UniProtKB/TrEMBL annotation, chain A:
Keyword Isomerase in annotation: no
Exosome complex component CSL4 C-terminal domain sequence ranges: 122-162
One of the GO biological process terms: RNA processing
One GO cellular component term: cytoplasm
Protein name (record): 3435_t:CDS:1
Broad class of the protein's primary localization: nucleus
Superkingdom per UniProt: Eukaryota
Keyword Transcription regulation carried by entry: no
GO MF annotation, one: RNA binding
SUPFAM superfamilies cross-referenced by the UniProt entry: Nucleic acid-binding proteins, Ribosomal L27 protein-like
Automatic annotation (TrEMBL), chain B:
Entry's transmembrane regions: none
Signal peptide (UniProt feature, chain positions): none
Principal place of residence: cytoplasm
Protein name, UniProt field: 1024_t:CDS:1
Pfam families for the chain: RNase_PH (PF01138), RNase_PH_C (PF03725)
Any one GO biological process: nuclear mRNA surveillance
Subcellular location: Cytoplasm; Nucleus
Residues of the Exoribonuclease phosphorolytic domain: 47-175, 178-229
Top-rank taxon: Eukaryota
Family: Belongs to the RNase PH family.
Keyword Coiled coil part of the UniProt annotation: no
């Protein structure tokens, strides 16, 4: 199938016909491309909105953003365009979830080095912190960081704020977020696949 | 003695360089013929032949090499990376640097940063900043490094830097409103000469460097020096804008061509994998 490659500043269509997806912007009555890449039309299955997106095949590096406000895309809905059926899964759409490695902990917070944003690798080193009150939804005052994370853990979390000058604020206060490298055996315990040792962690739903 | 750089052997001799344009010959050979054809065979309103290639520096996130015959330079873009400065900023920052290679000019340039490089870097930033969507990159920095390999016209160096940096930014996948194309012009004897060489610049009464976003029809930066009439400036701006849209075409073509080549390569790889699998 012929693909249409567009460059930044190229006019893609009328703003009333399409909604602006990643890699595009609206100015006046028109939609323009803001990156180099392949132009695609995405349609939500349950809604009638048609999104225009421009993306490269491989996302080079990403920058963490808060929630899914900036990228404005919920990946739970499927995108299928009748004309472009091969386009369903586009890398770089899922931007609200990050995967990182705990580098140090103290009594108030765990410091995380962000490695992957959605499914795009993070080229440079972005630092985030999970504060004690953001670890889980219930019993927030009884959380102990040392029972939730250890240095070296791989955790899944979401970005809740741009944070302070140095680090983003992350949260694992959801069933989907938490440690995800070992086997969870309950909501608060994980088991090492090799040594079968049980340690206390905030677990992500597998 | 300079211990930081490799010195030449003690018994070295200065190379004998053949100089085509000595001071005597400067007055003998005219800049143009009677029917307005310049020394390199183009008319006054034509740019030099351009060659543009994105993605030549593999270590950088994005890069570009540009050549306007005698003016040659390379640009590398790194980032977006986390800002190291301790102040919080909701917008990304753009860090531009232009560097002349020691061998780029007729006289040797010192490897240390000099005031001209500082000024050019500032101008490059001013020309690019309106086009880059920095509001999408909180707490991040983009680094743009331009290395001038051969200088044939100071105005054209700045214009080529802006053009190359914009292509390199697009190559890095950084979101932009539009590509920035830039063009230089000189005022020589009440005439406007587009894209002047170093030798032509020596005779100029003034100069203009215009950078614009042709698709959005907006000027991002304009730099004028020398003494010119208003009508002359207006004419120069019109001609530069025209030249910019030509450069813009080259930029767009080479960028989409590089993406197409990459896609074809990926498709070929996929085909191979499927065969093996």
């Amino acid at each position: 199938m012929p693909v249409e490659i567009v460059t930044p500043g190229q006019r893609l269509g009328h703003a009333q016909d399409y909604a602006a997806g990643p890699g595009t912007y609206v100015r006046g009555d028109f939609l323009y491309a803001s990156v180099v890449g392949v132009k695609r039309v995405l349609v939500e299955t349950d809604k009638k909105t048609r999104y225009l997106t421009v993306s490269k095949e491989k996302v080079q590096s990403a920058v963490p953003t808060v929630g899914n406000i900036v990228r404005g895309f919920d990946l739970k809905c499927m995108f299928i365009d009748p004309q472009h059926i091969n386009v369903i899964n586009i890398p770089g759409l899922l931007f609200y979830q990050i995967t990182g490695k705990v580098i140090r902990i103290n009594q108030r917070e765990a410091v995380v080095s962000i490695m992957v944003i959605g499914n795009a690798p993070c080229g440079e080193d972005f630092q985030g912190i999970i504060r004690k009150q953001d670890v889980r939804q219930f019993d927030r005052d009884k959380v102990k960081i040392s029972d939730s994370f250890r240095p070296g853990d791989i955790v899944r979390a979401k970005v809740i704020s741009l944070g302070d000058a140095r680090s983003y604020y992350l949260s694992t206060a959801d069933n989907d977020f938490g440690g995800c490298a070992m086997y969870p055996i309950s909501w608060e315990e994980m088991q090492c696949p090799k040594m079968k040792e049980i340690e206390r962690r905030k677990c992500a739903k597998p | 003695m300079d211990r930081r750089r490799i010195p030449g052997p003690e018994a070295s001799v200065k190379p004998i360089i053949e100089r085509a344009d000595d001071d005597d010959t400067l007055h003998v050979v005219p800049l143009k013929t009677i029917d307005d054809i310049r020394q390199d065979g183009r008319s006054l309103d034509k740019i030099r032949k351009a060659w543009l290639a994105p993605g030549i520096i593999t270590q950088a996130n994005g890069s570009a090499y540009i050549e306007f015959q005698g003016t040659k330079l390379a640009c590398a873009v790194y980032g977006p990376r986390a800002t190291k400065i301790s102040a919080f900023s909701g917008k990304g920052s753009l860090n531009c640097e232009i560097k002349f290679a020691p061998f780029s000019c007729q006289k040797r340039r010192s490897p240390q940063r000099d005031p001209q490089e500082k000024e050019l870097s500032q101008l490059l930033f001013e020309a690019l900043a309106p086009a880059v969507r920095l509001d999408l990159l909180p707490k991040s920095t983009i680094d743009v490094f331009v290395t001038i390999l051969q200088n044939d016209g100071n105005g054209s160096c700045l214009a080529a830097s802006i053009t190359a940096a914009s292509v390199a930014l697009a190559d890095a996948g950084i979101e932009m409103l539009d590509q920035v194309a830039a063009c230089s012009a000189c005022y020589i004897d009440d005439e406007i000469w587009i894209d002047c060489t170093l030798r032509e610049e020596e005779h100029a009464q003034g100069s203009l460097v215009l950078s614009c976003m042709p698709s959005l029809n907006e000027v991002t930066h304009m730099l004028q020096s020398g003494e010119v009439t208003v009508s002359g400036t207006i004419r120069a701006i019109e001609q530069c804008t025209e030249a910019c849209s030509k450069i813009y075409l080259i930029m767009g073509n080479c960028l989409s061509e590089s993406v197409r080549r990459k896609l074809e390569k990926d498709n070929a790889l996929d085909g191979l994998n499927k065969k093996e699998g």
